[in-house]
Amino acid sequence: MENSTTVQEIVEQIEKLTTGQQKQVLDFALELSGELPEGTPIKELLKFAGTIPPEDLEQMKQAIEEGCEQVHVPEW
Prior knowledge:
The chain has helices spanning 2-15, 19-33, 42-45, 54-67. The chain is mostly helical.
């Protein structure tokens, strides 16, 4: 019976979260349960190294610098 109460409390709290926060909770739960899918091995990703044009990398860098310097207080 205690398990049912705990599950209900978790559901109630999760329903209060934003979609992004709910995704974080899901990822955490999957990690705890060992069900998180494995990532791609680095050996398979290395073939893509150096394939992004420098101009695109500069645009990505600028977007990250501009977008990551902001704090969204309601999400904290």
